[in-house]
Amino acid sequence: MKTVLHKANTRGHNSFGWLNSYHSFSFGHYYNPERMHFGALRVLNDDTVAPGMGFGKHPHDNMEIVSIPLSGDLHHQDSTGRNEIIRQHDVQIMSAGSGIAHSEMNANKDQQVKFLQIWVMPKELNINPRYEQKSFKPADRANQIFTVVAPDNQDAVWINQDAWFSLANFEAGKNDEYFLRQMDNGVYVFVINGSVTINDTVLHERDGLGIWDVGSIKIEANTNTELLLIEVPMKINEA
């Protein structure tokens, strides 16, 4: 088993007034050669956007971009004509593929929006741009690990990669085990809130732990805890 630990206070940080952003991996003005990616997981940004503000229209290609609102609402528009509101308990994915331009704005004028923005390197290049979002009930992940992004599960949003995203809300004292789908994959555990022990490592709010060369991981909630688990291939083609 191999691991890499990213404590919350070691993340990159940028503040632009309207945007307060923490970066688990190198992004924008934050560059750390030792934190470029975890396998195919390239970006994990923890963003807070001021009321009425956001990211103006900008292009992407050949990246799987997942947005998970933690509170508030996001307004998404893109060059395919999409015009959507993404709310708490929704999960959105945009396969940029051969190229797409989009904007992500705080849909509200009276409250912040907090969301996780996650980029995964794609399995196939230059596919037609694709968008999907689904809403998931909090009860679906109560004291269990619930898959919300997958290449092989019609109840989840589809991703152009052998990757699986799962959410879990555990009460204090609850235990579970996560089994990886593929032997060459690793799993990155991100604590949204609370405290949890993964195998023998204690994690707190906004800590991240990457684990690979392992078949499963053991989870024990030390407090009421909300987790995001991102399973991705560790071997990638960066050409």
Please tell me about this protein's structure.
A hairpin with a 2-residue loop joins strand 18 and strand 19 (201-203). The strands form four sheets. A seven-stranded mixed sheet has the order 1-20-17-22-15-13-14, with no helix packed on it. It has a single domain (2-122, 137-233), classed as Jelly Rolls, CATH 2.60.120.10. It is mostly beta strands. Helix content is 0%, strand content 55%.
Sum up the structure in keywords:
globular; Jelly Rolls; single chain; seven-stranded mixed beta sheet; seven-stranded antiparallel beta sheet
Count of runs of 4 or more consecutive helical residues: 0
What is the level 1 CATH name? Mainly Beta
Overall tally of structural domains: 1
By CATH, the superfamily comes out as Jelly Rolls
Order of helices and strands: EEEEEEEEEEEEEEEEEEEEEE
What is the topology, as strand order, of the major beta sheet?
A: 1-20-17-22-15-13-14
* CATH topological fold name: Jelly Rolls
Oligomeric state of shown chains: single chain
Helix content estimate: under 10%
CATH architecture: Sandwich
Residues in β-strands, percent: over 45%
Instruction: Count all strands and give the number.
Output: 22
Straight-line distance between termini? 27 Å
The description of the largest β-sheet is:
7 strands, mixed
Q: Kindly state the mean pLDDT as a whole number?
A: 96
Structural class: mainly beta
Describe the global form: globular
Rg, please? 17 Å
